[in-house]
Write a structure and sequence with these properties.
This protein has 524 residues and is α+β, with helices and mostly antiparallel strands. It is 53% helix and 9% strand. Strand 10 and strand 11 form a beta hairpin. The C terminus is likely disordered. It binds protoporphyrin IX containing FE. It comes from Dichotomopilus funicola. Keywords: Coiled coil, Heme, Iron, Metal-binding, Monooxygenase, Oxidoreductase.
């Protein structure tokens, strides 16, 4: 027994010593011999991925990356095998088409999406966002039809219907300015209902029930767990252990969620192929291209996640920024209320002619990008040139949007809301507008960009047409207190909404035309 104990003790000692030696040599290799050794960064980040992981799981990574760029320059080694870029040229070099004009023109291969980030667990189904190159090209072509100008025109009545309901609900819930309402929740209800209808043929009923649907709640819960799995993906054994330890109640919830998605999809399929929505193309080509029910399910689900939370986040952000910048709010309200005779005139084409509205949205996208962190790519065989630097193959590379847009090397007064910077104001002539890519660029850029702009313009214009907004005391620091777990953890954005004062115009008109008048004019 004593012999056995001794032997076990020895085995343990040898094991621990080996582990220690391995760890020390791994750290030394990363710092002194790794192909990225010449790139600057904090010692701990150059030696191990732990520090990066902790910041990602703590929700502070985008802010920390800005501090790192300030200290170390436009290229920082934020993990042993990962570089963060804060140089506008990096957008094209990392995200551009192969041979498409970036520094890698003529290169054989595109940068690949980094699987440990996009699919940290193998059971995550393949969809347009995480698919490999060929499958992606096929899905993109199939889905493009649903995002065409023609489809969007046909989708207009559906979208406007949900905005009508939003405005009605805000009237009912705001008590003529007496009750505060959570604008972040109302925007989420609206965009989830719109995209639910466009992707599954039915809304989630969030606006009807003034609450989140369980499907939507599940998405938020998964987003936070996602950051943990992205960090653990570097330790496959730990992931396996974690998956084995996941309580059965969680697995049942996941199963329920999948079942709910499947039922929604089946109902949409029963509605037929001819419907101008976002899955029409997928359903038409499903047989020809051998798309399985699982493919269809995963792609409808990703449309909802990609298309609703992002748009609602930006709407919440722009509302907060306007509430805390009264001059901009006044100017935008004047533009919207001066441009239309009646609310019915606010539609896709008319709302797209308002320059200050677009500038307000773009400035909000800069200060509060819905995708704030870097979405990592892997450098292909043979290495690549990124923003003038040679980067060896297999390096993980990304541009972190929030850090890029708050860097005063690219934007003057980066922490101040200045819509004028997008309208040719000479004060901002030195801004590097090419640093701004909230929808990314290249073959994997946002397919829903036009839809997003249309939705954001319509919703914001109609909210400001109908209401005067005032921020509630408890939301004054709404933006400053947030953290990022892939998505912004927004919290409640409370505001008081008072119906806008108007006077009748055009006596006897069949369509009752109304015109906004400045409330101060009534008092005087
Ligand atoms: C303000 C709103 C939005 C922002 C900031 C935004 C941003 C982005 C970004 C940065 C990507 C690239 C993702 C990556 O590289 O992995 C992306 C992709 C995508 N977005 Fe959006 N998005 C928005 C709204 C929408 C909307 C309304 C839809 C419609 C359903 C949508 C659907 C998609 C899809 C399907 C992809 C994947 C495209 C592909 O890989 O080919 N997005 N989006």
């Amino acid at each position: 027994m004593a012999l056995l104990t001794l032997t076990l003790g020895q085995v343990l000692a040898v094991g621990l010593t080996t582990l220690l030696l391995y760890t020390i040599s791994y750290l030394l290799y990363n710092v002194f011999l790794h192909p990225l050794r010449a790139y600057p960064g904090p010692l701990i980040m150059r030696a191990t991925r732990w520090d990066h992981s902790i910041r990602h799981m703590r929700g502070t990574l985008p802010f920390d990356v800005l501090a790192l760029h300030k200290r170390y320059g436009p290229v920082v080694r934020i993990a042993p095998d990962e570089l963060a870029f804060a140089d506008p040229r990096a957008w094209k070099d990392i995200m551009g088409h192969k041979g498409g004009g970036g520094n890698n023109a003529g290169h054989e291969e595109d940068m690949l999406k980094y699987d440990k980030f996009y699919r940290p667990v193998e059971s995550v189904p393949r969809d347009i966002v995480n698919a490999g190159r060929e499958e992606h090209a096929l899905l993109r072509r199939t889905m493009a039809h649903g995002f065409s100008d023609r489809s969007m025109r046909e989708q207009q009545p559906l979208i406007q219907g949900y905005i009508d309901l939003l405005i009605r609900r805000l009237r009912e819930n705001s008590g003529d300015g007496g009750h505060k309402v959570d604008m972040a929740a109302w925007y989420n209800y609206t965009t989830f209902d719109v995209i639910g209808d466009l992707a599954f043929g039915e809304s989630f009923g969030c606006l009807d029930n003034s609450d989140y649907h369980p499907w939507v709640k599940a998405i938020f819960e998964v987003a936070r767990a996602g950051t943990v799995f992205q960090c653990l993906a570097h330790y496959p054994v730990v992931v396996k252990l974690m998956l084995a330890l996941i309580p059965s109640s969680f697995k049942e919830e996941r199963e329920k969620h999948m079942q709910m998605t499947l039922e929604k999809l089946k109902r949409r399929m029963e509605a037929g192929k001819e419907r101008a929505d976002l899955v029409e193309g997928l359903l038409k080509r499903a047989d020809e291209w051998g798309l399985t029910l699982e493919n269809l399910q995963a792609n409808s689900a990703i449309l909802i996640i990609g298309g609703s939370e992002t748009t609602a986040t930006l709407l919440s952000g722009v509302t907060y920024l306007l509430l805390t910048n009264p001059e901009a709010m006044k100017k935008l309200t004047r533009e919207i209320r001066g441009a239309f005779q009646s609310e019915e005139e606010i539609d896709f084409p008319s709302v797209s002619t308002l320059p200050y509205l677009l500038a307000c949205l773009d400035e909000a996208l800069r200060m509060y990008p819905p995708v704030p962190t870097g979405l990592p790519r892997v450098v292909p065989r043979g290495g690549a040139n990124i923003a003038g630097s040679y980067v060896p193959e297999k390096t993980v590379v990304a541009v972190h949007q929030w850090a890029m847009y708050h860097n005063d090397a690219h934007f003057k007064d980066p922490f101040v809301y200045h819509p004028e910077r997008w309208l040719g104001d000479p004060a901002f002539v030195d801004d590097h507008k090419d640093a701004f890519q909230p929808f990314h660029l290249g073959p994997r850029n946002c397919i829903g960009k036009n839809l997003a702009y249309i939705e954001m313009r319509l919703i914001l214009a109609r909210v400001l047409w109908n209401f005067d907004l005032r921020i509630a005391e408890d939301s004054l620091d709404w933006m400053g207190r947030q953290r990022v777990f892939n998505l912004w953890e927004k919290g409640r954005l409370h505001a008081y909404l008072t119906p806008a004062a108007r006077q009748w115009r055009g006596r006897g008109s069949a369509r009752r035309k109304i015109r906004y008048i400045d409330p101060r004019a009534i008092r005087h």
